[in-house]
Amino acid sequence: MSHFLSRLALLFIAGLTIGTTAIAANNARFLTQSVPHTMEVGRPYQVSVTVKNTGSTNWTADRFKLGFRAQTDSIVWGTNRILLAPGEVVAPGQLKQFSFTVTAPPAGEQYGRAKSYEFGWQLVEEGAEWFGDATPLVSVDVFRAPGVDVATGATDAAFRLFPPVKAPPPAPPGLFDHSFRGANVLEQTYEDERKCDHTAWIPNAEQIDVIARNAVDMGLSYLRMPVIVPPVVPGNSLGPQYCDSVHLEWYGPDNATNMAAVTDKLRTVLDTAQRHGLKMVVVIDGYTKYDEQCYWKRSFKDIEANARTLVQTFSPHPAVLAWDILNEPLWNAGYFGCLNSDADYASVVNAVHAMYNLVRANDPYDHPTTVGEAQTPNFKYWRDISSYASPHLYITPHQARVAKDPGTNFVNVDQVVYVQGAALREIERIFGQLPVVIGEFGEATGGGRPDDTFDDAAKERYINKFLDGLSIANHGHMLWSLSMSSLPSQQGHSFLEPDGALKPAAEALARRTWYPVVQQLYLGYLGRSADPVALQQAASQLLAVARASSYTDHDGREIRMAPTLQGLDQHYDSNAQLRELIDSLGASAESQGFHNYKDTGALVRGIFAGAFKRLPEGEGAQYWINEINSGRTSKGRAVLSILAGATANTTPQGLVDAATMRAKGQVSANFTASLNTDAWVQCYSNLWAANANRRLLDTVDSSTNVKAYQAKIDALLREMASGLPHTQQKESRPVCH
């Protein structure tokens, strides 16, 4: 029988036991760490390492320390010992978070290129031994980032900086939060097959239709696409050593022909996106420096007139959501070898700010603007021209020291979690109150260095962990990428096969569309958060039901059951598979123990109290009692119908109820997302943990600050992990960590 509880039946009935071994006198278990994977030379950064005392000795401040081990006990980060507080004692079973400040070491001699340093620590009893788990190594890339003052232009008159002519329009409230789900579109780059054909970046009509359909199926609402603006003066500036004899850079006979090749394809893409209900972020590309060429990219001055035409032509298009002023300006300049002095940095900053001013002067609709940049030290240059931040965040297996476990084909991606959290905090520090959408993220399969190659299963785990981190931070995302190109350089990153079929990682994204609904069902029927495995299983089942019952309308758009409680309630009677899933949840032993299904009045009161933190009013209570007693609504369906009704209720009380449900659902989602390693999942595995989670959710209401509430989630996780196995077993707690 299909049901939601296959995982939980094992966890909460049988529990989980872990074999134990003899405990050494000194021992420590690594739990987590937080360290940025990119830094700016000379800047201080907050980092942390969390360990558990799994030995039998007390750690005292006079003898026990956290020591740097990555490079033979040397001093790289300003110190090689982190001390306990004076008089502090960490007893066996206790957790200790070492929070400290490191200073980024010197960068390399070459501008625009990083120098890598290793970050790795271990417990040490001075004069006796190193002991316990060493922290997983992180390779930290340190960059230069000259102090170009984009706000005043006063740093160096030679930079000729272009301050913004006016502030960027504010982002629409609530648009660029975690609900913002999108993808980048790119068919092939300038260098692929040496074609040097800039219009080949843009999909053709058939390709964009397939891409748009798949985007909708994956639960995405936004696409981002770079558009290479041709120079006003046509012609190839690189020569045949870079391009084959047929395809040369901007080989059209005149500017009008080159512009038409770009605008015609862009219009087709925008029209198709609109037809499928998608919005687009259009990236203005094709330049890097203000008045100099950088490899194949021309200067801002070369493309200025055509960029003006592009903005004027397409700013009225209803599918345009925002302008991205340039893709990875400083990262590309460094990669192409165009950053060799502070003045080179200033030239790039000049160019991007000049393009921003051009957009502001020629877009009467005031679309939001952003700059999709890579590497955190470079983000500071663009905050004054951004309506929302769209940093690119790639955490490669090489940087996070992710490798296949010995003797297996399993890639452990837990380390990605440790690096991502610190990177997101640094992004938030740089951009302040601006909303954040990660403009690019992803990982390649089947290409690159051996230690950077993921198989499909590892990529799916990577994506899930990465998106869990964004859920906690309430940031949106645009994955890289959706491409139907068969070229290895594109297929390694694409979530689509060349024939348009979804890859496994894309299925993971589609499944996540149903996560909020599953959490609401768990809250309503069980009063708690779903564990990660059950969340994925239930979401997969609902996605399958939605796909099986979908149909195509006369415009070629797929119509399917909405991923909402109302959508489920509307299809309950007509869809046997859905009905079986919902009924199995209500009939489960855990739900029968949580709600009083034998007493209709008690059942209705319990549903209201758990979901809305209030009892039903007289008429409302009687309405649902009559619905159930008459047989019009089964007791198994009652939770779903009451919750769905609340989401549609627009009375003042109904809006408060919906806000309470929404806050509980978000806290619940963040709790599950925080179980981001196998060890944390083990901690949430029996009745003690379930009840602790229920107590956590009991205090959430419509006024709860969900982001601030994360501190309570973290505290509960620490409580779950504290103590030694024998003490946990006495309390009927899970044996974890």
TrEMBL record:
Keyword Signal set for record: yes
Signal peptide span: 1-24
One Gene Ontology MF term: hydrolase activity, hydrolyzing O-glycosyl compounds
Transmembrane intervals: none
A Gene Ontology BP annotation from the UniProt entry: carbohydrate metabolic process
Keyword annotations of the record: Glycosidase, Hydrolase, Signal
InterPro entries: GH (IPR017853), Glyco_hydro_5_CS (IPR018087), Ig-like_fold (IPR013783)
Keyword Signal on entry: yes
Name this protein carries in UniProt: Cellulase family glycosylhydrolase
Source organism: Pseudoduganella guangdongensis
Taxonomy of the source species: Bacteria, Pseudomonadati, Pseudomonadota, Betaproteobacteria, Burkholderiales
